[in-house]
Amino acid sequence: MPKITLNISDEMLTQLRQLSEKSGFASLDDFLLSLLQKALEEGMGNQDDVNAEEEIRKRLENLGYM
After folding, report:
1. What DSSP string runs through the chain?
2. Inside any domain, residue 34
3. Which end of the chain has fewer CB atoms within 10 angstroms, the N or the C?
4. Considering its fold, how many domains does the chain have in total?
5. Over the stretch 2-22, which tens digit does the pLDDT of each residue have?
6. Does the residue 44 lie in any domain?
7. Whole-angstrom Cα distance, residue 6 to residue 53?
8. Does residue 18 lie within any of the structural domains?
């Protein structure tokens, strides 16, 4: 798995570690990977919503409603 370097403040790192521990993750890496996965899923879901809206708009236009 490729590795990346991320520069964040000491304060943010402390907060992330605390939240990771409260959430029951085995490591900070696992917690951050979980957050990134959720963000990706939400982003992809939003794209699906945009595509669905475009499709509905096209259908309404073809039917003469728009």
Report:
1. ---------HHHHHHHHHHHHHTT-SSHHHHHHHHHHHHHHHHHHHHHHHHHHHHHHHHHHHTT--
2. yes
3. N
4. 1
5. 888 989 999 999 999 999 999
6. yes
7. 36
8. no
Token pair listed for 46: 């939003």
Q: Which two tokens stand for residue 54?
A: 């475009």
pLDDT (tens digit per residue) in 29-62: 999 999 999 888 877 766 666 677 778 778 777 7
Residue 50, domain member (yes or no): yes
Residue predicted with more confidence, 62 or 65: 62
Burial, 16: exposed, middle or buried (Cβ in 10 Å; 0-12, 13-18, 19+)? middle
This prediction has a pTM of: 0.63
Structural domain of residue 64, as residue ranges? 28-66
Tokens of 55: 């499709």
